[in-house]
Design a protein that fits this description.
Number of strands: 16
Shape: globular
Number of domains: 2
CATH superfamily of the largest domain: Medium-chain alcohol dehydrogenases, catalytic domain
Number of helices: 8
Radius of gyration: 19 Å
CATH topology of the largest domain: Quinone Oxidoreductase, Chain A, domain 1
Length: 297
């Protein structure tokens, strides 16, 4: 089967297509025939060598998000052949990712796919929606709390706005002026200049850093970073935490239902054939992508 890998770290030109054996599922695992797989900034970081090499050192696979159909299942797997599913395949240095024709996933990371969207849109859900959901869990917002989301026009930020609003928070999105209409369409107020100490909580999806974003958090509030081990030291009684996203099929199933209920909006910025992975990486590297680029085998 074809799989997108890097054998040497670098720019988009480092991306290559390899031929490997089709993987076999073990106990509790399923093999998914990939219909679509989103490209995320973490894949660009992996390509550039930010996270190091895969364990075997030969090549590093790319891709965390997948939507597709189960085509083989191990013993005691929770899903059967023919099930339409989505999943998060966690790991920044793995030999095989979801940018492939097939991927084997632990059943606990898999969820039924949303029924109201196609596979290309469904593939944009797992990583960013789970990250938004888990980051909001770190903040532990009370109903009616005020939340500032930086990077509000991005994939993670947009999901955070919609999830927090659905739970009763009052949400403000920080983004570029050109993204005001988008941010407001997600249900948030819009700002380019947040008030100092003006919010009960801040979710720093733009990775502005604690020194910058903490000043917008009120005394005794909460702050969440979205990169592991980057939580700033607490000041002014502010609780600080950093997200380390994890696969969670049960929670992903709930998020898929929120898609079907119209709570979450899935955004696709463009699609590329698997063979065009280098081209997709080049577009990602240009920046300014609104929604996700999606690879289609």
């Amino acid at each position: 089967m074809r799989v997108v890998v890097v054998t040497e770290f670098g720019g988009p030109e480092a991306v290559t297509i390899a031929e490997v054996d089709v993987p076999e599922p073990g106990a509790g695992q399923v093999r998914i025939k990939v219909a679509a797989a989103a490209l995320n900034p973490v894949d660009g970081g992996t390509r550039g060598g930010v996270f190091g090499a895969a364990a075997d050192g030969a090549y590093t696979g790319l891709g965390w998000d997948v939507a597709g159909t189960v085509d083989a299942a191990g013993a005691d797997a929770a899903f059967g052949v023919g099930d339409a599913v989505v999943a998060l395949v966690h790991g920044v240095a793995k030999p095989l990712g979801t940018h492939a024709e097939y991927v084997v996933v632990d059943g606990a990371a898999v969820a039924p796919a949303p029924t109201t969207v196609d596979a290309v849109h469904a593939a944009t859900l797992p990583l960013n929606a789970l990250a938004a959901d888990q980051a909001l869990g770190l903040l532990d917002l009370a109903p009616g709390a005020s939340l500032l989301v930086t990077g509000a026009a991005g994939a993670l930020g947009a999901y955070a706005i919609q999830l927090a609003g659905h739970r009763g928070a009052t949400v403000t999105g920080l983004a570029r002026e050109s993204d005001e209409e988008l941010v407001r369409s997600l249900g948030a107020a819009f700002t380019t200049a947040p008030a100092d100490a003006g919010y009960d909580a801040v979710l720093d999806a733009a990775v502005l850093g604690g020194e910058t974003a903490l000043r917008w958090t009120r005394d005794g509030g909460a702050f969440a970073a979205v990169i592991p081990h980057t939580a700033p030291p607490p000041v002014r009684g502010i609780r600080t935490a950093a997200l380390d996203v994890r696969a969670d099929g049960a929670r992903l199933a709930e998020l898929a239902r929120l898609v079907d209920d119209g709570v979450l909006t899935l955004r696709v910025a463009g699609t590329y054939d698997l063979a065009e992975a280098e081209k997709a990486h080049a577009r990602l590297a240009e920046g300014g992508v609104r929604g996700r680029l999606v690879l289609v085998p």
